[in-house]
Amino acid sequence: MPAVVASDTTRTEHEGVLVNTDVDVVVIGGGPVGATALALVGRLGLTAVGLEKDEEMWPTARAVHFDGETMRTLQGLGIAEKFAAVTIPMKHVEVINESGEVLVHASTDHFGDQAWNDHISFHQPDVERLIRGVVDETPGVELRCGVSVTNLRNVDGGVEVTAVAKDGTAQTVRARWVIAADGARSGIRQSLGIQNDKYGEDAQWLVVDGQLVGAPGYAADMIQFGRHTRPALWLRLPGTRVRMEFMLMPDDDPNEIVTPAAVERISRGALPADKFAPDRQAIYTFRGRIAQQWRSGNVFLAGDAAHQAPPLFGQGLCAGLRDVANLAWKLELVKRGLAGDELLDTYESERKPHATFWVETAANQAVIIQTTDPKVAEGRDEFIRANPTASAVPTSPALGPGLHEGDRDERAGKLGMQPILVDGTRLDDMVGTHFLVVADRGIYHQLPAPTKAALDDDGDVVTLLDPLKVGQLLASVGAKAAVIRPDHYILGVGDTADDLDRLVHKIPSVARATPVIATQTTTVTAETR
């Protein structure tokens, strides 16, 4: 993108008509993270404009995997079944060494605690098209394509963004906040002078996507090949689509390595030239990066602009969608005056450690898989044989410090589960984007009357007491009461009315409506929820 000036210098006018727009949010970048940000803030009632430099949606795949948490975020956009129709569950994951020995074989074809499969494969244009469809149908938001940002500056009360369309039309959009989801080479991040911290060693890889017809490929849906002669990855995608990735070696000719004959050779026959039709071949860099700062004034970095990870655990897009799912509801609370600006500081404090965990984990796995030293590979294989779970996908960590009680209870700050109710309904479809209070009825009955009145009157909170709806969720955290945030992370858990009263008053809208009540118990008959 053109150089972006982030200072208070006077913007340069362009030929054409100057268009001024006042909105709550400007999203820079119209990829899946940026489009999801638009859809999320729009469904919360905020106004937003997205600015994307490309006129057409990117036609080929980049990301190909997301997890159950990501699918749950997409479920919140209201078209879960459409997403399910263009994705497939990843049934098996393997690690295979140079000799073809299967060091790890894990079955992944089952629903996880998010009420979706834990590993899901897709063709990115299919998913991105659906997300953009949500944007198109959501009042108050729009995505402008073929528009390049030329200037951005923090001003009193917000941000001013100047951009120019392909036809030369200049646009100045004034917003309270900007979400910069403009990719790994983020011009916004660079213009703000934000540096990246590096994790692991960079390596050049060839990625090849296409249709494999009339050849079996590999039986497992995802394979990490720890071949010291050439590390590689295999993924089976919806329909006849597959992806393979190959580490480049020092003597590779970059022009020859992308030919059909070379792809057949380095895939060891898995991608025969007469049966594999590539639609994307690209040399790119496996890299681990974390932006040192995720907020500058009212500008927030998200997605690859904030973090990049090697693709070993398929968490790149997942992390980006976690970013905007974390940020959207906080912006909405601040917009309505139900929370102060300090709530927005919890975006970086919560998300950065979480994203860093996945970048470090993927970078460490890359070191394991990418070794080209036969002796090191032999030692690695011996270790994996003795410790087969060492290469398993790790459990997602808790958030960093923020709006939760993880500092006093390790169950808080973690992702909560999504029960599937007896009638087949997923809980989020009942709750929506709200704070959720779940409790044993006996605990709830002992809450102070003002607290219960605040819950009854608060449209930002859903309270559920029916054991058929809350029993599984409470059992999963081993508590009698819990408060869950709109992004499905656990604000806190407890076993007494005092615990629940404390937690309820951490919900920003409740905290604004009523002061914290002194510890007391009051027996009141509550309606069944």
Automatic annotation (TrEMBL):
Please give the residue ranges the record annotates as the region Disordered.
388-410
Instruction: List GO BP terms, alphabetically.
Output: 3-(3-hydroxy)phenylpropionate catabolic process
Query: Which residue ranges traverse the bilayer?
Result: none
Top-rank taxon of the source lineage equals Bacteria
Q: What are the UniProt keywords, alphabetically? A: Oxidoreductase
Stretches assigned to the FAD-binding domain: 22-360
What would be an example GO MF term here? FAD binding
Q: Which Gene3D superfamilies match?
A: D-Amino Acid Oxidase, subunit A, domain 2, FAD/NAD(P)-binding domain
NCBIfam families xrefs:
PRK06183.1-3
Q: What is this protein called?
A: Bifunctional 3-(3-hydroxy-phenyl)propionate/3-hydroxycinnamic acid hydroxylase
* Protein source organism: Georgenia thermotolerans
